[in-house]
Amino acid sequence: MRNELTLSIEGMHCEACVRRVTAALQGVEGVKVGSVEVGSAKTTFDSNQTSAEEIAAAVNRIGFSAHVEK
Ligand code: 9UX
What we know:
Elements: E1 2-10, H1 15-26, E2 31-37, E3 40-46, H2 52-61, E4 65-68
Antiparallel strand pairs: 1-3, 1-4, 2-3
The structure holds dioxo(di-mu-sulfide)dimolybdenum.
């Protein structure tokens, strides 16, 4: 099943951050990136392939602090 996920992301300050976060999200199997801006990201994901926690963890691994909004 396909779920919507919005992350609020601390530590993003510029467009390069937007690109880094976008790349990290695209690297997670089952994720479709909607929009990424400084401070947040909207995605959808297949719950058979990944989870909100896993997606947030991928963003945290590159040095940000992601929180699941919904
Ligand atoms: Mo911008 Mo982001 O100078 O990880 S690249 S703050």
